[in-house]
Amino acid sequence: MPVKKIIIAIDGWSSCGKSTLARQMAKALQYTYIDSGAMYRAITLYFLRNIIDWTDENQVYEALKNIELDFSANENTGVAEIYLNGENVEYVIRDLIIAEKVSEIAAIKAVRIFAVEQQRKMGARKGIVMDGRDIGTVVFPDAELKIFMTADNAVRVERRFKELYAQNPNITIEEVKNNLEMRDYIDSHREISPLRKAEDAVVLDNSNLTQEQQLEIALRYVKEKT
Ligand code: DC
């Protein structure tokens, strides 16, 4: 009997390893991985580049009409990367300049409607792992498997610092810590689709887990659901 393909929703705090786990799972299961945060980051990049005043509803509305987002697999890694109007922006959107504004922009209603509509279309064929903040609660409330990830604050700051430091040695641990705290606050307190654990999500705390261990646990959850 063919194995049933499902939707896997991974939500959680910033920098607790959601995308690492999602990528590992997609590879192991031969599923498609979609990084929903990359969509909000790419929209933020567009707004910054085009000097859009995102407090002005009209400007946001008009700007969104000019944004096309696509995912396409990197030839070498096989991992889907994000394209903004045909340009690969997978790497530029990881900059702290984007991280500083993205939560504010992701809280705008029109932006969320725009992104969620596309995310739902991507899930139509199942066999998908999507990570974000509202995947299990809003985008795919019927997802067969929902994982809510968490990790100790200090562990998360350290992980993100290492990642960003590799690209920018001027960055300080304080800056990274402040950014994570600010994003978690805005993401979990916004009016529309705030970050919260879906009632039927399983909690995965990976503070003391290796990547191999977390994958093993997650694949066990998948087995139970398929
Ligand atoms: O996963 P990430 O850190 O790349 O996400 C960047 C921001 O995008 C995050 O701070 C909040 C927002 N986001 C969201 O509001 N909803 C999602 N489903 C994914 C991300």
Total E-strand runs: 8
- Indicate the CATH topology: Rossmann fold
Biggest sheet details: 5 strands, parallel
**CATH architecture label name:** 3-Layer(aba) Sandwich
Strand order of the largest sheet: 2-6-1-7-8
Ligand identities: 2'-deoxycytidine-5'-monophosphate
Number of domains: 1
- Order of secondary-structure elements: EHEHHEEEHHEHEHHEH
Distance between the termini: 11 Å
Give the CATH H-level superfamily: P-loop containing nucleotide triphosphate hydrolases
The protein's oligomeric status is single chain
Shape: globular
Notes on the structure:
The chain has 226 residues and is of the alpha/beta class. 50% of the residues lie in helices and 16% in strands. It has a single domain (7-207), classed as P-loop containing nucleotide triphosphate hydrolases (Rossmann fold, 3-Layer(aba) Sandwich), CATH 3.40.50. The termini are close together. Residues 14, 36-37, 40-41, 102-103, 106, 132-135, 183, 187 line the site of 2'-deoxycytidine-5'-monophosphate.
Keywords:
8 strands, alpha/beta, binds 2'-deoxycytidine-5'-monophosphate, 50% helix, Rossmann fold, 226 residues, 5-stranded parallel beta sheet
Q: Would you spell out the secondary-structure blueprint of this structure?
A:
Elements: E1 7-12, H1 18-29, E2 32-35, H2 36-49, H3 57-65, E3 69-73, E4 80-84, E5 87-88, H4 96-106, H5 109-123, E6 128-132, H6 135-139, E7 145-150, H7 153-167, H8 173-189, E8 202-205, H9 211-225
Parallel strand pairs: 1-6, 1-7, 2-6, 7-8
Antiparallel strand pairs: 3-4, 4-5
The protein binds 2'-deoxycytidine-5'-monophosphate (DC).
2'-deoxycytidine-5'-monophosphate binds at residues 14, 36-37, 40-41, 102-103, 106, 132-135, 183, 187.
